[in-house]
Amino acid sequence: MQEIKGRYVDIDAREIYGAVVTINDAGRIERIERDPERDRRGWFIMPGFVDAHVHVESSMLLPVEFAKLAVVHGTVATVSDPHEIANVMGMEGVEYMIDNARHTPLSINFGAPSCVPATAAETAGAVLDSHRVTDLLARPDIRYLSEVMNYPGVLHGDSEVLAKIAAARAAGKPVDGHAPGLRGAAATAYAAAGISTDHECTTAAEARDKLAAGMKILIREGSAARNYAALEELIDEFPDRLMFCTDDSHPDDLLAGHINRLVIRAVRGGHDVFDVLRIACRNAVDHYGLDVGQLRVGDRADFIQVDDLRHFGIMATWIGGKKVAEAGAHFLSDYRPEPINNFNCGLKKPEDFRAAAGPAGGKIRVIEVTDGEITTGARELTPVLDGDGRPVSAPERDLLKIAVVNRYADAPPAVGFVTGMKLQRGAIASSVAHDSHNIVVVGVDDDAICRMVNAIITERGGIAAGRDEYLEVLPLPVAGIMSLDTGPRVAARYGEISGFVRRKLRCGLQAPFMTLSFLALLVIPKLKLSDLGLFDGEAFEAVDLWVKE
Q: With helix as H, strand as E and coil as C, how does 109-130 read?
């Protein structure tokens, strides 16, 4: 038996009182007894935080390394969609993540990826059809159907999409949504198909439409998409129907904080602490039916101790009755299996990245980036042409070439243009490119673009940045999207390269590689680029580079 003494935060009764929490040898709460002597002293004892939607792969870390960073911030569980590695490696990738997660006490709850590939307008490394997804959903270690990103398929009755949703409902497991910008009757129809959540709302009005349709809303604050400010007003009205999530957090952000940062922000913003803790600790556990303790008698002893209920300094994190972190240090073990990968393209030449010539005086479609957002706009601009009439980068106009290279086979790169990247020199590239994880690159000239792409091909995955003969690379040997190194080392290297991009390449974005990684995500409106060409995410169809008059 272990006894933990302090001020008990009772979310159900909405009160705080001195207590002694007794943990038995099985790692469960044996009893909770009031202790008036501790009503005003001692650390606060409360349920741990849950990230209600996160792709562990986006941290560039293996689950065991992700866990080491998460637990020091008071996270005891995640709801995790492994579709990033599934799009690269298929079932082998899903099994790899599940096996790795077994080697950490952090409760990582995986879903069955619903979108592998995400669309037919890109080349992925695998296909998980409705039969494979049905088999996954029959497993007890698969908790839900992961985000259904093909919302046009839901609305238009695509048989494969609906079969996956039907399989989840038959298994009694919730279905996660992904429907950016969907409003009104369309949101109602999407929810009526069985979709229970959405994490893509960027306005309170959009969220209210989805709440009215019966969905639960995840307030997301990740490395690229930051929606807390837009959705904060919902906290006081819907504390029983909201959750917090990060979705995609790069390692430097995860090193600094996790769900605890959202909790601190909400409480400091004047929201009721019990409502905030319900959102951060309780709602995801109830919605997904997670085996995560909630500080009730008989529960598994998953909880945290914090210094106060405003700053939420994490003094200790407990999972399964064992202290896994204290005062910023974790007590978790290492586990580094052999990497798996799927990288089969050859080196490229600068001329491979030439754009197609168009009509004299014609305009091209240009992806418009907004810093801090993963949605993009679409513009029609008159390009700068070379001697052959081909459009080229014009950094003085913030008009840069973007290319996506198929990493699964040798094929001509797809070439387009982007504005808003604010890159003045060289090029940046990444094989972390949602969701198919082909190579995406933006640069000021074809030579720089080619060098960055070839650096990533040589490493069989990574992020790269450079100018002239200078090159910076972070290798990602696991499926081309994750490192085998520790979280702090990956975070430090990632920070160094990001700093190089901002300082030496004069890029004005706060998270250049995170922004870059979403420029190939076709299911987020509006204009994106896959290895097969430009794609209009609102019309859900391919479009040409040159605008037809």
A: EEEECCCCCCCCCCCCCCCCCH
